[in-house]
Automatic annotation (TrEMBL):
Taxonomic superkingdom: Bacteria
Originating species: Mucilaginibacter gracilis
Matches recorded under InterPro entries: START-like_dom_sf
Name used for this protein in its record: Polyketide cyclase/dehydrase/lipid transport protein
């Protein structure tokens, strides 16, 4: 597995950050501009990444105020897991977004940059939305 990670401190208590992230309907706000055809429920999201692939993701596991794990609900171009890990700092929360992807050498060369940009974009957007 190849790992991509981005970390941000959000000026909100952990319960508020967790509530936002636990509902996949809110994740559209975190996505970069090259995402379209978004439909979602609290537990599942369907969207298309421009010039890449269609994805259907679902929440695999929620640990209240600590972690949300998201995995493909249908066949994806490669195995992956998206995970938000939250650290309670009292009045602020550290949010770490992790993407673990099973990539062969060719895929790694093609998607490493976009996956790291996705991780960075989502954490930046989270901090802006919840500030």
């Amino acid at each position: 597995m190849t790992d991509f990670e981005s970390r941000v401190t959000v000026n909100k208590p952990v319960g508020e950050v967790y509530s936002f992230l636990a509902d996949l309907n809110n994740h559209q706000q975190l996505m970069p501009e090259n995402i379209y055809n978004w439909t979602s429920t609290a537990d599942e999201a369907r969207f298309t990444i421009q010039n890449m692939a269609k994805l259907v993701l679902k929440v695999n596991n929620r640990v209240e105020n600590k972690e949300i794990s998201i995995v493909p609900a249908e066949a994806a171009p490669f195995d992956l897991e998206l995970k938000w890990v939250l650290e309670d700092n009292g009045t602020t929360t550290t949010a770490v977004y992790k993407i673990a992807a099973d990539l062969n050498m060719m895929m790694k060369m093609l998607v490493s940059g976009p996956l790291q940009k996705l991780a960075d974009s989502e954490t930046t957007s989270l901090a802006q939305i919840l500030s």
